[in-house]
Fold these 3 entries.
Entry 1:
Amino acid sequence: MEFLCLAPTHSFSTNPKSTKNISIDRTSTTGRIMKMYQNMRGSTVRPSALPLKMSRIVTVPDISAPVVSTPAILPKVDPGELVVNNPTGGDPDELIQYLVDILASPVYDVAIESPLELAKKLSTRLGVNFYIKREDKQSVFSFKLRGAYNMMSNLSKEELAKGVITASAGNHAQGVALAGERLKCKSTIVMPETTPQIKVDAVRNLGGHVILHGQTFDEAQTYALKLSENDGLKYIPPFDDPGVIKGQGTIGTEINRQLKDIHAVFVPVGGGGLISGVAAFFKQIAPNTKIIGVEPYGAASMTLSLHEGHRVKLENVDTFADGVAVALVGEYTFAKCQELIDGMVLVRNDGISAAIEDVYDEGRNILETSGAVAIAGAAAYCEFYQIKNENIVAIASGANMDFSKLHKVTELAGLGADKEALLATFMIEQQGSFKTFVELVGSLKFTELTYRFTSERKNALILYRVDVEEKSDLEEMIEKLNSSDMSTLNLSHNELAVDYLKHLIGGSANISDEIFCEFTLPEKVGTLSTFIEAFSPRWNITLCRYRDQGDINGNVLMGFQVPQSEMDEFKSQANGLGYPYNLDNFNEAFNIVVAE
């Protein structure tokens, strides 16, 4: 399986059957909206066979889809390299209805027209006009209130009187709670028991009734749908509904008013609601503007689904950018993306962290990890294709950063921007060798250094970070070290190395039948002890490394002594726990430190 990766040159063509003139009553609300459309589009209007009113369709997410692990091909796509989608253009009658509904949306009862800000430092560095759409400036620090309010404001009085319900562990929950408060409608939000308290409190402060249920989002959603059916509550999906999509599409109208002649708009993709709405507007008003989605490598559900031609559910999802950590994209949003968007780009977690630092450098604002995904993708795209002198827009989707996650962001930011490098050097342990090593590093400034000699090895291992101003300086330094019999590896983009290696220097040992596994566990009191009881004393535990990263889930690195004859039994026990895990014995960076 291979991706076709190239810069698209196509644009959406006008459908011949949709160029008829139609008569419009320009005194009516619909007529005024259609006139606005004509003025923006600069051409005749497509006829609409649909009734010109807001859609009330509510689709319950279909969670049945093929389950796959993220394929190995995805990391082979460079950050910023476009994975091309060949859009079909969609149904013209449905799209004109979308346009009318977006323009008529009442989202400004709760939302502001967020600013489109020129990022001067990013623009100078990349050689483009780099604009950031600041949805983090909304009252709930996220764009999500738009879709929730748009859908809920279109419910009947009877539906509002009964109340609404949703499942969410993040920004959608706050959007529904705020909409419920404004519409005087009781909102019930089912959140996983593992949800950080700061997010639970934020929803309650907006008047939402919080129910904590289940260990995962899927369990919370299943329970919410059950309550919806039993209690007659309208379910407000986070993305897979036309009303939600149209509310998010109002961002597109604002961008179009604020800036013209845009090369591309970059949109973060989780379930696909935001990009569907923005694309539905732009592909009618400014069809030559590319609409490009951005996902992390570890949560590339839309990229993979578009490539396969059908929705696929990821077996494991990286939750570093938790706001876009979606295992299965929406059925409706997937169809819209197939019809309208130009493609997807992927970014690493260190690139997302570097984007957070870029925004902080611009104006001392801190985005959440998912809020910076589109900025990371836009910057990587410009660098990959050497885009110059174009107008680039990236949507900053939110700023609900969990404070405890900042330490990991700062660890990754310098590496993601290639301002810093993480290196491992093997050095023959003899008098004067460390001094020689320091001299060979030369003018590159150390930012971190860990050195440990073990009697079991002929060579000592040095793990260190250095500041990097020019890539050529780093390459020259590595060449000097290698030619001086100091074998050196660049581990800058090896996340296992970044997360664990500095804590394990000096911890190498020659242990028979040792295996290493990285498990993803829910952040809940007692989970770690229950997890360990599942393996011990059946198998000897040789290593454990854990750190709270501020996510709903946490990662723990474990070492076990498992004879080859017992591997099937071990895997069966691990699979039975229901926690995602990876065997890390074949990670080169890991083995040079821990295993001998």
Entry 2:
Amino acid sequence: MLQAQVFLWAYILLFFPASIVAQGLGANWGVIASHPLDPKIVVNILKDNGIKKVKLFHAEHDILTALSGTDIEVMVGIPNHSLESLSEKYSVAQAWVKANITAYMGKKGVNFKYVAVGNEPFLAAYNGTYNNLTLPAMKNILKALNEAGVGKDIKVSTPLNGDVYITPTYKPSDGIFRHDLADIMNGICEFLHKNNAAFIVNIYPFLNLYQNPGFPEPYAFFDNDDSNSMDDHGVKYRSVLDANIDTLVAALKVSNFSDIPIIVGEVGWPTDGNIYATTKNAKKFYNGLLKRMTKNEGTPLRPKQYPDVYMFSLLDEDLKSIDPGMFERHWGIFSFDGQPKFPLDLSGKGQNKRLVGGKNVTYMEKQWCVYSKAASNQKDLAVKVAWACNNTDCTTLVPGASCSGMGIDMNASVAFNMYYQMANQTKAACDFEGLAKIVKRDPSNGTCRFPIMIKTIQTTSNSSASAPKSSRSSTFSSSTSHSPFQTHSPSPSSSPFHSPLLIFQIFVGIFTIWFV
């Protein structure tokens, strides 16, 4: 009997996943970080939590190698800056496919499912730069995939921002594509339809709340009552995500492409850097989303099947642009070191389960850099803190964030420690002309956590067609339509730290108030 029980448990462990997740759930994996987590550890996080789909913003050798042989479905991206060369020269597309797809295929290779050509290339903020490059690039990539014999198994699409469609009446059923993109979207949809590929759209309910004063907070989440719903000819929408999806469904129908499947390529909720960006709200949002996915009832205009959804994001990224907001570096359901931020049941059943964090993560020494009250030059403190924040991540200090309102000592210590940790704990990085000192006791207090940096490896890109280390960073796009849906608008950036004057003004202002 004992042997039979042992055999049964061994069978369960071998043949059943460690965690059950909602059908169609995936995660975005970005690497805009000063200390990226070892890809092998990240892949184990995916496996341990039962996440079987991952979306990458560009091809990196170490990441693709770590994904090899795992059966995790991979959507690999091509950055916008590559669209021109890919659209003009088929040989560039051939080289990209050879370097980033076929080189990783085989019996124990990467399970590629999609190539995502560009990332939100039709944003109004881009002023049409990529409008006539995206579809030709998509066609060349598909041609190269077909030539390599993998075009039937690997689909080609392009992730688009929700600003490509509008609704003149605010009602989802009146959704149409933006007038200036009508011909382009018709071509994109025709390509997707012909090749049985999905329309990929990025949607951010958090930004509706963040950007629009007076936006009903419950409508950004799920399961709210009729007092915070939208009525569309008798149909009640109780979440802006469902309304946004159906606006796209309506736009596709108007364009005679009502059967194109939809993938939500990015959706999530940040956990810091803004009054609405909290772990409590993130947990509430994801629990509602996962419950909707598990029910699989679809949306009013496309019932019976909810779209596949890729959470944004798997990990925090401390070098992302803060142009959209201070929350931008805190989208992960895991912190930068692969540890879960809050309990989350990925199955959608609402159980208070803890995610499985990264294992065998190597940290630097247990020491921190904090403000020294004993220093003689206290009058320079505001300037030194501002300088530190211009050169590190101080997004936890802004009003409403996890370290805000804790006094001058804590705020200075947060700034100094973040600079020190991101500088690999070098002794010179904890000086600030005597205003800082190294301590061995963790100065974390309440919601304000003082991290210790991890030891890291540098990932490598595969080809000149791969992106620099960026994913979705950076500016806002304000829709010119009468649409209630405002979504994220990334743009490239030359520097990992942004708006230094803004950060300087924020912290000099804060310290001036304190000292006065």
Entry 3:
Amino acid sequence: MTGMMESVKARPAKGGSEYRRVEPEEEEELDGAEWARRAEAGSRRRKTAERYVFTCALFASLNAILLGYDVGVMSGAIIYIQKDLHITEFQEEILVGCLSVISLLGSLSGGRTSDAIGRKWTMGLGAIIFQTGAAIMTFAPSFTVLMIGRLLAGVGIGFGAMISAVYIAEISPAAARGTLTSLPEICINLGILLGYVSNYAFSGLSEHISWRVMLGVGILPSVFIGVALFVIPESPRWLMMEKRVPEARAVLLQISESEAEVEERLAEIEEAANIMKSVNSEDKAVWRELLNPSPAVRRMLYAGCGIQLFQQITGIDATVYYSPTIFRDAGIKSDQELLAATVAVGFTKTIFILVAIFLIDKVGRKPLLYVSTIGMTVCLFALGTALTLRKHAEGLISPNLGIDMAIFAVCGNVAFFSIGMGPICWVLSSEIFPIRLRAQASALGQVGGRVGSGLVSMSFLSMARAISVGGMFFVFAAISTVSVVFVYFCVPETKGKTLEQIEIMFEGGKEWKGGGEVELEDTQHLMQGDKKAFSLG
């Protein structure tokens, strides 16, 4: 209704944006039939725009399938790589964990590359690099060649996964940005599930062939990414940064409900970026501003980099990569039974990420983070307890009960991760930074996550030998407890705000710190609403 009550025109404004809101003009008198016709036309355009934005976001999220598939498939493929190439435990840790660290090169260079050649072509470049690495791994005759392919795949994943979240945030309307920006997390979970299923499906092949087929199948998603590049448009915010205003307007016409909304969004983008002519952009290079940040940017970095770090050091990659090791420690013996149990984990992870998609723009980011971090803490502690009792107090619980407890705790951990820490990490890291810093700052946020993931993945087996697998999950439970405190003090609520409004919120430190009271009040209203709905049901 706002678009009917006011008009937005492209009109020069002295010392300001080319696009600005003007006073509402006198409304023409319309009869009932004309009002109905216009309302129907507006509804059709809105639905068309929503479908187009969703399609673009879905195609951009395909890069995340590559990351998810690699994580899932390596957990099973490593069993047969170890038997075929006779690698040591240390080589196994390096092979598994190096992807997270090497993807930093792709993430860090991806920010600069995306500013130079555009968001969508950076995603395409990442897919090509990944394809090359996956092909090398498939035909690797030795551990050295396998590592070369693994390193290339990591760079490609770093390129695509980082920039896809930025792209989706820049084309999405504020009301649906949380849902759409969490699509990459859905695709990661889908990729993990496909990796687990691939492991189970090809586990009957010979040791020399099985792991090669498992890794080779990962090339297929990158083919679809190549097709997607000819379907999705470039980011309108990137086009505005490049002063390609007509192209930016053409894209916004496809993803907006009305021409008035197009002009309003153009004005917001130009005001935020000011076509790179603001005083800050002239005085500071992007990286210098990130390394010597203002108080507002420092708060953004705390939230963005911190959430990425906690997402990984709470042990999610250890749970996914080494799930066969966990289940073997719980008492499962057969390789096929181990891989079948991992498929259950993959299904759980995928199902609960769908729950998050429906809630993230309704409940908000912060309440879901509380549920996620507290639930993960409980499940990690339960998993540590189950594995410890099985090892040191066999008489207290039956073997089958120990296995059931371990599977339930692992599935619970990935379920709570998927409704909060998993998708919201992507959402926050792509929406809290101002446009002039967004690509590089999002890449920098990946540093904490990737380093944390690499450290966990490359040290899990060695640390588990020292303090036991159960002991490792007690450590992860303690870190997860700290993450609850981090969410309370460092993560603001961004639900329903435009990217430009979020930037203003971080600029106002007092308002940002006081957000918790508002969030608590909103949560109370939400709970009361739920109780009423329940009683009515």
